[in-house]
Amino acid sequence: MTFRYRPEIDPDGIPQFDLVAEQVQKVSPDSVALDDQGKLYTVRYEAVNATLLNEFIKEHRKVEDLQMFVAKQ
Predict the structure, then answer these.
(1) Are 41 and 32 a contacting pair, CB within 8 Å?
(2) Using CA atoms, how far apart are residues 1 and 23, in angstroms rounded to an integer?
(3) What would the pLDDT profile of 26-64 be if each residue is shown by its tens digit?
């Protein structure tokens, strides 16, 4: 999601980016942390980074495979 801080916090209104924990949990349950009562607490950003890197690598391999396939045609 994108948002802007109130003008008294950020007078320039620079867009900020963040993740919604409920949405992250649907896609990658291991990328969120729960509180003592088992309720959603926060996004584990270090886990999100690792997950994104792994997904990027998988997609990159697919692209390489497709490029080799096309080159052979």
Answers:
(1) yes
(2) 10
(3) 988 999 999 999 999 999 999 888 888 989 999 999 999
